Amino acid sequence: xxxxxxxxxxxxxxxxxxxxxxxxxxxxxxxxxxxxxxxxxxxxxxxxxxxxxxxxxxxxxxxxxxxxxxxxxxxxxxxxxxxxxxxxxxxxxxxxxxxxxxxxxxxxxxxxxxxxxxxxxxxxxxxxxxxxxxxxxxxxxxxxxxxxxxxxxxxxxxxxxxxxxxxxxxxxxxxxxxxxxxxxx
Length: 185
Known about the structure:
By secondary structure, the chain is an alpha+beta fold. It has one domain. It has helices spanning 2-48, 134-138, 162-184, and strands at residues 54-57, 71-81, 84-95, 100-108, 113-120. It has a five-stranded antiparallel beta sheet. The longest helix has 47 residues, at 2-48. The radius of gyration is 22 Å and the shape is elongated. The termini are far apart.
């Protein structure tokens, strides 16, 4: 019985030490992780809207996002050139085959897509993961939001990854319906 208490006490001490060590490492690295995430976002925003000098996050979003099927507007950034808005960059989430797909989508003031980048996804490697490829994403650049974004007419689908392709197309269609309200702000 004495042996069991000794073992239990030893395990407790090891667990407490491990928790303490993890807490220390987390507190030391948390600020660096946040700083690097912000830097990566800034670089991605610049790639999506290269015409902008700076980006300003909109604090409030219009209520219309509830009516957009399968699309969540996470954040909206104004793309500014010499203090004047030249476009908007949306950080959105849509549902793909493997789960949520997080995108950055840039739209000029004229309503044309200026760029698109996949930030996160869990799509099937070698199939749905091809939504990250430049060949796939570049077909959206320059398209007007009034375009229908029809698969195999306007947009070439990824073979074997129709659900992933549709998710990206639905995001663009949803942004088209949301665009006018956000642009008015």
